Amino acid sequence: HVRYANDQKFGHLVSSISDAFVVVDHEGIVRYVNHAAEEMFGCKAEDIIGESFGLPIVSGESTDIDILSRGKTTSAEMRVSETIDEDRRVYVVASLREVSERNRVEESL
Strand, helix or coil at 55? Predict the structure, then answer.
């Protein structure tokens, strides 16, 4: 019951954050995405979970990436951190923030 309650709290916490969050296991398989990630990638969680993340992941790094969704390209900054759960399994958490507007402003300077 405690683990389920913790999972519920985690899901509620990251679902309310505006940044996209993707949790990837040690094999590179997506295990969780929040609503913002669904919006950014243009598909539902059930279409993403269980699939390969498909991007190089380096913990502690920040990388700018381009995402093709619904026929348009969105630029995002991806920050990656590593975490270990209570069963000692390693996961990578990728936080993605849309930065297309920031890039447009920087290019115009």
Answer: coil
Residue 95 and residue 79 in contact, taking contact as beta carbons nearer than 8 Å: yes
Phi/psi of residue 76, nearest 5 degrees: -140, 150
Domains of the chain: 2-108 (3.30.450.20)
Cα 26 to Cα 22, 53, 58, distances in angstroms: 13, 11, 12
Nearest to 60 by CA among 83, 37, 40: 83
pLDDT at 22: 92
Q: How far apart are CA 47 and CA 50, in angstroms?
A: 8
Give per-residue pLDDT as tens, 19-30. 999 999 988 899
Q: What are the phi and psi torsion angles at 57 (to 5°)?
A: -120, 120
b/e burial code for range 18-40 (CB count within 10 A of at least 16 → b) = ebbbbbbeeeeebbbbbbbbbeb
C-alpha to C-alpha distance for 20 and 40, rounded to whole angstroms: 7
